[in-house]
Every structure is written in structure tokens, then in C-alpha cells.
From TrEMBL:
One of its GO terms (molecular function) is acyltransferase activity, transferring groups other than amino-acyl groups. PANTHER family: GNAT FAMILY, PUTATIVE (AFU_ORTHOLOGUE AFUA_3G00765)-RELATED-RELATED, N-ACETYLTRANSFERASE DOMAIN-CONTAINING PROTEIN. This is GNAT domain-containing protein. Transmembrane segments: none annotated. Residues 54-242 form the N-acetyltransferase domain. Pfam families: Acetyltransf_3. It comes from the Eukaryota. It comes from Microdochium trichocladiopsis.
Length: 274
């Protein structure tokens, strides 16, 4: 309609008028927390992470063929943000190049390798630190090759990634905007430790079992809910998601600056949601 302002999603798609109207009725609240410093450390400075059976390390260009093989398994890719296999090696290469310095400042992503053989069997981490559109918190994601499903690797992988994320440097307590479903009974202006969100298609029973089985730290279940799907080829359809939050076990006090207390937060910087 001529003269009507278009409303776009956080991913840039123009929303149907009735969807935009519905989303605009949900207020987001300003609270205070301490997220990892930006930009994130470059991949060249990220330590490898070892678990009982896995080695997690930043992906590099030498991993191209193995990464492409992972991303061309339809069963693996069907529930991802881009629910299709990579079209060709060049598409995988472009993604891999985006994970290399100096382009990696908003991504905390690791390849998942078997310690026994060195085989790449998956990847995981915070794929996009700027992608906070669902709850306001960064989201932890992972994928594993289908041949290695059901062998307990997810229960090794997720706690290791969470521990590495929560050990990243943080400086000061700052204002941050959050969806009301992500703050429980807290009020605007309250403080809380930063969280990682784990959100995926609610139909993935295996992923639900993995997350429900985690104990250290134990994720807090938010809900299953329906929302608009923004994924390629599924734009504006409805999808049911399941979500959990994991709070930083270090709390908030270690990250306060000298003026970063509740009564004197002169170090606060706005991180307003546009």
C-alpha cells in the first residue's frame, strides 16, 4: 500500500501487516547484565577445548572438505537456520571464510573432532553474537553428523561450549534489552547474570533429551511456543520451538567495574533494541 511503512524482522524480511501488528504488541524490557566483551577474541587466539572423547577447535580453511561433507547431510541440515544442504563447495567455503580473522568477531564457533581419529563430526557454539532477536540472549547451537547421533557426544559438547563461553572476558554491568519471557519474575531495571539460550525446533526429540539431561549447569526450561519461521524457504510459516536458558554460573559480581554497582552504575552503556 502506498505510503504504508514496511516493518521488517530482525533478519530483514518484510513482515505481513497482521504479523507486524502482533509482534509490535510485545514490549521488551531493559535490565542490567554483563555480556562478553566485543569483539570476541579472534579464532587464532581461542584455546582448543578437550573433553573425554572430543577436541573442539576453531575451524580453518583446511577443514573445507570435511565441513562441506557435514553440511551436505540432509538429515543434519533440515532443522538448521538454513534448512537445506549447501549448494556447492563454494557456498561452504564462503561460510568458512567468514569464520576466519578479521571476520570472526561476532562468532564463537568450534569444529567438533573425535580425539581418537581427528575426524570432524560436527560444530557448535554461538554462531552469531549479533543474533539476539528471539530472547535478547545469545544462542548456543550445534550439529553432529548423523553417523554419530545417539552416542552421547552432545552431552559432552554442550557443557564444554558453555564453560568456554562463560569464561570469556566481561567488563562492567550494562543495560541490555530482553524479551519478557526471558526474565522470569524480574522487573525492568533489575540485575541478572548473563544467559545462553538453547532454542530449537520442538520436534527434535533427540536434542530435547540431550538438553533435559544436562546437569552442570542445568538449563532452565522456558516453554514450547509457536512463532513465525524466518528460515529460508519457510518464511512467514509457523514453527513450534522449545527453549531453555543457562545462567552464567559465575554470577554478576566478578564483572563489576569500580562504579558498576546497582546504586552507582556510571559505567552503564546502552544496548538498546532498535
Amino acid at each position: 500500500m502506498t505510503g504504508t511503512k514496511q516493518i521488517r524482522s530482525a533478519r530483514g524480511e518484510v513482515l505481513p501487516q497482521e504479523v507486524a501488528a502482533k509482534l509490535n504488541t510485545i514490549p521488551w524490557y531493559n535490565l542490567f547484565t554483563s555480556l562478553p566483551d566485543r569483539p570476541l577474541p579472534p579464532s587464532s587466539q581461542r584455546a582448543h577445548i578437550k573433553t573425554a572423547r572430543l577436541v573442539l577447535r576453531p575451524l580453518d580453511l583446511s577443514d573445507l572438505e570435511a565441513f562441506h561433507s557435514l553440511r551436505t547431510q540432509p538429515e543434519v541440515m533440515a532443522k538448521t537456520f538454513r534448512p537445506r544442504v549447501d549448494r556447492d563447495m563454494d557456498e561452504t567455503r564462503t561460510l568458512l571464510q567468514s569464520l576466519q580473522p578479521p571476520n570472526d568477531g561476532n562468532s564463537w564457533r568450534f569444529g567438533v573432532f573425535l580425539a581418537s581419529t581427528g575426524e570432524l563430526i560436527g560444530d557448535g557454539g554461538v554462531y552469531n553474537f549479533d543474533d539476539l532477536w528471539r530472547t535478547g540472549w545469545p544462542e548456543l547451537e550445534f550439529m553432529l553428523r548423523k553417523e554419530h547421533w545417539g552416542q552421547g557426544y552432545g552431552k559432552e559438547l554442550i557443557p564444554a561450549l558453555m564453560e568456554a563461553w562463560f569464561n570469556l572476558p566481561r567488563s562492567g554491568v550494562r543495560k541490555h534489552t530482553l524479551h519478557p519471557n526471558a526474565i522470569g519474575e524480574l522487573e525492568p531495571g533489575d540485575e541478572l547474570p548473563d544467559n545462553l539460550a538453547i532454542i530449537f525446533d520442538a520436534s527434535i526429540d533427540a536434542a530435547r533429551k540431550i538438553v533435559d539431561g544436562l546437569t552442570d549447569p542445568k538449563p532452565d526450561y522456558i516453554a514450547d511456543w509457536e512463532q513465525i519461521d524466518w528460515r529460508e524457504g519457510k518464511e512467514f510459516m509457523e514453527i513450534t520451538l522449545a527453549g531453555w536458558l543457562v545462567a552464567n554460573p559465575h554470577g554478576l559480581d566478578p564483572y563489576r567495574t569500580e562504579t558498576g554497582y546497582l546504586s552507582d552504575r556510571t559505567d552503564v552503556e546502552d544496548n538498546e533494541k532498535e
